[in-house]
Amino acid sequence: MSTLNRRTFIGTTAVSMAGFSIVPSHAVSGMGHIAPSDKLNIAGIGIGGKGKVNLKNMPGQNIVALCDVDWEYAKPVFETYPKAKKWKDFRKMLEEQKDIDAVVIATPDHTHAVTAAAAMELDKHVYLQKPLTHSVWESRYLTKLAKQTGVVTQMGNEGHSSDTVYEVAEVVQSGCLGEIREAHVWTNRPIWRQGMPQPLKEVEIPKTLDWDLFIGPAKMRAYNPEYHPWIWRGWWDFGTGALGDMGCHLLDVPNYALQLGAPKAFQASSSLVNTESAPVSAKVTYLFPARKNLPYCALPELELTWYDGGLMPARPFDLPLNAPMNPGGGFMLVGSEAVLIAESYGGNWKVYKNGSVITPETKVKIDRIPDDSNGGGRHEMHFVNCCKNGGKPASSFEYSGPFNEMVVMGNLAVRMQSLQKTLLWDGKNMKVTNISAAEKLVTTKLTPFSSDVVTQKVEGESKKSVKWNAQEMCEEWIKHTYKNGWSLT
């Protein structure tokens, strides 16, 4: 899973097209194959998990190509779309199959950017699962590339097309809560293993899996079923933990309604941080500067705190005893006049004032996302309709790129917490400004485990401290160094 050297890839494609005049995909749908009212030719990349759902939620379209590194995991999807051409390497698919208008990408987080960029460079519209990217820099890169190419883009935070997102935004932007200087967002994730050391035992790679393509731009390691399928989310090299998994869902309404932009500072605390995987639980706090006031709503400096692994914010003392704060996930906006509590994407939202539920009066109206799903997914079909008929999806990279920068930045705070300081952020230059060249970062390396042993006597230490140059590691986690042969620039 990676992108070829950009000049080579584009040059090869350009040669194969020499002598032809082709209408670009942002003018008509994908490489000029179809008229705006016809079906979209879609390729699925990473189809065994969430990609399967996204494709199902795009009914009536032509699924012309299916790509997955594990053909056994993807087998049910292959059987669902028997006419689609099958691939393992998305690079070959994009280079050789010319009838693709759009791609749906649901690969592990660490391959999102290279896959999406390769498709965008070839004028394919891109529906990319959340989190948008594995790192801050990758998000910025895709945002710029979307603007440059003009293709239609959408991040797969499906709830952003829900009416409740805009209902809550109307309440907030009407000033119903007063000045909001405090927000809290929480999830019960992870529901997979985190806080784990690297597996000790090397396991034979399944014959149906191309492990090298799964690794992609990450550092090579031996195969183990602890990495694939699905459980990759908890490993730093492949996933972004509970924050990356659920942040693009639960942080979406606060980000959209309060027009947060980039924070100016952030910090974190968590259970034990180790070199291999995200912690079992974490708390991340972002400080956002004052933004330009809206007609009915001031936007002062705001402190937003994220909680995962079962951690929860304290209940306001004047909140009714029976007021729900869904332990599975939700958010709370604390204003000077009232408090709003909701579930993901504003579901079941309620406003509390002086200990009672109130019905706020709104002064603004925000357009809803058209429900033209025709039995499919509202978010997915919104993307499809924009590809065919023009328009900008609700969670286009113009919106979701900067938003995702903020989300995955939280993991930077988690991994840097041994510095015991608030990290000051220069958003324009994507840089933490208060780490000196000599500072050391201390993290924990756990003794590798063997899944064959239920109980084991550990000889010596089961964990040890590892020291890194803090500035170098901070830069690496903002912009990853890819394995040889993989590049975005």
UniProtKB/TrEMBL annotation:
Ranges of residues in domain Gfo/Idh/MocA-like oxidoreductase N-terminal: 42-156
GO MF annotations in UniProt: nucleotide binding
Cleavable signal peptide: 1-27
The organism's place on the tree of life at top rank: Bacteria
Domain called Gfo/Idh/MocA-like oxidoreductase bacterial type C-terminal: residue spans: 165-259
UniProt entry tagged with the keyword Oxidoreductase: no
Keywords: Signal
InterPro entries listed in its UniProt record: Gfo/Idh/MocA-like_OxRdtase_N, Gfo/Idh/MocA_oxidrdct_glycsds, Gfo/Idh/MocA_OxRdtase_bact_C, NAD(P)-bd_dom_sf, TAT_signal
Presence of keyword Transit peptide: no
Protein name, per record: Gfo/Idh/MocA family oxidoreductase
Organism: Draconibacterium aestuarii
